[in-house]
Write a structure and sequence with these properties.
mainly beta, five-stranded antiparallel β-sheet, four-stranded antiparallel β-sheet, 33 strands, about 0% helix
């Protein structure tokens, strides 16, 4: 295990006010500080964001890989490795970092405590374990056993230091998830010639079936007490839905058009839908509304707190990143200059996206 500072990878490209680049309604006094992370082995899609820190794998001199955690506000970084393993799929939450480590055998899940600098393998021997997800006092991941066709989900509790296999998760192949919100762990899987969403309830420690469908249930996103999903019929367009804290299934959008997978923050769900040849962003927070003045050639939104971000086809043949305040503050521009900037993700004030960097990814700190 090695820790180091590596300040040379961070580059502040520009700082500008969004009101200088109006799109539709101009948002007032939104500061955009762009940065570029070089040398990351993964794309922005598999990086993990927590506050102003971003975690991602980087290659070592011996051709293994470690996880680098970069504070994009303070321009500081530390690296965590596991012998000569290939480390990937980081999940960062406060003082804890979990990641997948593969040294030629079965992939395992490793937990690093940044306060005590301890490293602990928490997955089980004989299981191939993948893609940890962490929130609050819980960490979960997907696993498979050699010679068995199905998959399962393990849940590790930081309070008791134990891991358990979630009931029903190991009976078939996982389609989407696991995802975690304040109430439990959710996933979708094949069930009885169809598909189903299951929930492991933190309060009762029980697994329950939430809904079943003949359509593929995918695109799970969770936060607060909300789970959102997409149902994709074999010969039709996606249906966007959510399950609230009471277990009620709410159909958010069943219009006959293409839709993106939903994104959840708190009690707010956002998604995009094609209408008259362009996309518009829809928002549900108890009722559905349309984000004003957003008419995009491409539009796959992600929400965190008060901000929604998306990519849009620009006039010079590329695509750029835009954002808006869901409270109605107006649209602001995050990037300019074209190129292929797509699929942004946002957590708090930090937004990262694909494209623009040969090895690594780009991002921005968005200041209200």
């Amino acid at each position: 295990m090695r820790k180091e500072k590596a300040c040379g990878l961070f580059l502040v490209l520009s700082v500008f006010s969004a009101c200088c680049c109006p799109v539709g309604n101009s948002a007032g006094a939104v500061g955009i500080s762009l940065f570029s992370i070089k040398g990351a082995l993964s794309s922005a899609n598999s990086a993990s964001i927590c506050s102003f820190e971003v975690a991602y794998p980087v290659r070592t001199a011996t051709n293994a890989s470690e996880i680098e955690i970069r504070n994009v506000l303070e321009n500081k970084a530390e690296r965590i490795g596991f012998g000569e393993s290939f480390c990937s799929n980081p999940a960062l939450s406060g003082s804890r970092l979990a990641f997948q480590a593969n040294s030629g055998g079965s992939p395992k899940i490793v937990l690093f405590d940044r306060t005590t600098t301890s490293l602990l393998v928490i997955s089980e021997a004989g299981e191939s374990s993948y893609a940890p997800v962490m929130k609050g006092n819980y960490l979960c991941w997907t696993f498979a056993k050699k010679g068995e066709g199905g998959q399962g989900i393990r849940l590790f509790g930081f309070l008791d230091g134990r891991s358990v296999v979630l009931k029903n998760s190991d009976q078939s192949r996982i389609v989407s998830g696991p995802v975690i919100n304040d109430l439990g762990v959710f996933w979708s899987q094949f069930l009885e010639s169809g598909f189903a969403i299951f929930k492991y309830d933190f309060l009762t420690s029980a697994t329950q079936l939430l809904c079943k469908s003949s359509s593929v249930i995918s695109g799970l996103s969770a936060d607060g007490n909300i789970l959102a999903y997409s149902k994709r019929p074999q010969n039709g367009f996606p249906v966007t839905g959510c399950i609230d804290g009471t277990g009620k299934v709410v159909v958010l959008d069943d219009a006959w058009n293409e839709k993106s997978d939903p994104s959840v923050s708190g009690t707010c769900v956002v998604w995009s839908a094609k209408k008259d040849g362009v996309s518009e962003i829809k928002i549900w927070n108890g009722s559905t509304s349309v984000l004003a003045n957003v008419k995009s050639a491409q539009c796959i939104p992600c929400v965190s707190g008060e901000n929604v971000v998306w990519h849009d086809q620009s006039g010079d043949g590329g695509s750029d990143i835009f954002g808006a305040e869901i409270s109605g503050g107006g649209v602001f521009r995050v990037t300019s200059g074209g190129g292929n900037k797509v699929l942004p993700r946002i957590s708090g004030q930090v937004c990262i996206w694909l494209g623009g960097t040969d090895e690594g990814f780009d991002g921005a700190i968005i200041t209200p």
